[in-house]
């Protein structure tokens, strides 16, 4: 038996009487690809050392990329692969969509392809294939990659964009813990989209999502002078950012509370505009920078009890 990282190991029967278990080979112990293998099982997402028996076989991933000769293995071309003969699943997306989302998330995090592959415990060549060619990776590979990028498998597939997160089941033994101040700062500093809780001019409470940045431990965002968010200026407000990992039913949230003020210094405004990671998704003329100086910073994280 010979295998490569990314191949699928299938066991047709087990000693317990269960039938057909499969997983992705994520590690080799011999350069020639002979057993044993580190296998990430699709049903549990656990990685175990496996010595395949006579009831096991390997599905080699040999889908040729576009432009190669018919029947030529993509592995021979230096790329990694999708399962040979594997029919597209009901959740498959259009050609290259997963790869484009992976690249976007990787660049947003400032990660190299090699570092991302290391975090996801997969071959850099396999990750290169996912980013460069149409692919439908296994559920286990997608979950690992999403975890390495700080996003979700659902987000990488592009599904559930109109559904609120958190509709999955809670893990069997969830663990809820408070986050320290430094961990809160680290999570907050990743920038992205957060929510500002403010009392609007008509006296009603409002929560508004914004694209935000963190500069010198200060939260900053752009808005318009006549917007709901402009009412935050001169008041104490709450700012919340979170992340939900839908497949693993875990996540975290950070809450910052402090006074909001307008950034009036022209040099500071130019610097913020030039260094911003993104423009406001809402569009329009949103040139008023508002800063929130957090005087209280708290957070919580939900994980499985054994993590």
Describe the structure in your own words.
The protein is of the alpha+beta class and 307 residues long. Helix content is 21%, strand content 32%. The strands form two sheets. Strands 7-8-9-12-11-10 form a six-stranded antiparallel beta barrel. The longest helix has 13 residues, at 97-109. The model is unreliable at 62-95 (pLDDT under 50).
Report Rg. Answer: 23 Å
Q: How many beta-strand segments?
A: 13
Low-confidence stretches: 62-95
Please state how the strands of the largest beta sheet are arranged side by side: 7-8-9-12-11-10
Structural class: alpha+beta
- Name the overall outline: elongated
Q: Please describe the biggest sheet, giving its number of strands, its sense, and whether it closes into a barrel.
A: 6 strands, antiparallel, barrel
Query: What's the helix-strand series?
Result: EEEEEHHHHHEHEEEEEHEE
**Mean of the pLDDT scores?**
78
Beta content comes to 25-35%
Distance linking N and C termini: 34 Å
How many individual helices?
Answer: 7
> Helicity range of the residues?
10-25%
Would you kindly provide a brief summary of this structure?
This protein is α+β, with helices and mostly antiparallel strands and 307 residues long. Helix content is 21%, strand content 32%.
Q: Topology, please?
A:
Blueprint: E1 8-13, E2 19-28, E3 37-41, E4 47-50, E5 56-59, H1 97-109, H2 113-120, H3 124-132, H4 139-149, H5 153-157, E6 174-178, H6 181-188, E7 192-199, E8 205-215, E9 218-223, E10 236-245, E11 250-262, H7 266-275, E12 288-293, E13 296-304
Antiparallel strand pairs: 1-2, 1-5, 2-3, 3-4, 6-13, 7-8, 7-10, 8-9, 9-12, 10-11, 11-12, 11-13
């Amino acid at each position: 038996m010979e295998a490569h990282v990314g191949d699928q190991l299938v066991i047709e029967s087990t000693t317990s009487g269960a039938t057909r278990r499969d997983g992705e080979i994520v590690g080799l112990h011999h350069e020639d690809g002979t057993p044993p293998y580190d296998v990430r099982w699709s049903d549990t997402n656990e990685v175990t050392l496996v010595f395949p028996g006579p009831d096991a076989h390997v599905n080699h991933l040999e889908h040729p990329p576009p432009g190669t000769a018919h029947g030529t293995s993509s592995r021979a071309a230096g790329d990694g692969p999708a399962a040979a003969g594997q029919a597209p699943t009901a959740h498959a997306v259009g050609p290259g969509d997963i790869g484009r989302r992976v690249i976007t998330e990787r660049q947003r995090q400032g990660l190299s392809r090699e570092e991302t592959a290391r975090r996801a415990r997969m071959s850099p060549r396999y990750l290169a294939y996912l980013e460069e060619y149409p692919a439908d990776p296994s559920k286990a590979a997608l979950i690992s990659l999403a975890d390495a990028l700080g996003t979700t498998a659902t987000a990488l597939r592009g599904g559930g964009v109109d559904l609120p997160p958190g509709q999955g089941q809670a893990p069997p033994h969830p663990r809820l813990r408070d986050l320290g101040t430094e961990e809160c700062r680290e999570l907050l500093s990743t920038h992205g989209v957060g929510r500002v809780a403010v009392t609007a001019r008509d006296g009603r409470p409002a929560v508004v999502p914004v694209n935000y940045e963190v500069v010198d431990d200060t939260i900053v965002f752009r808005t318009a002078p006549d917007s709901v968010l402009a009412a935050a200026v001169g008041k104490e407000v709450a700012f919340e950012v979170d992340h939900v990992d839908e497949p693993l039913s875990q996540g975290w949230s950070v809450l910052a509370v402090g006074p909001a003020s307008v950034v009036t210094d022209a040099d500071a405004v130019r610097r913020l505009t030039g260094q911003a990671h993104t423009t406001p998704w809402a569009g329009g003329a949103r040139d008023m920078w508002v800063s929130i100086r957090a005087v209280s910073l708290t957070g919580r994280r939900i994980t499985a009890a054994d993590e």
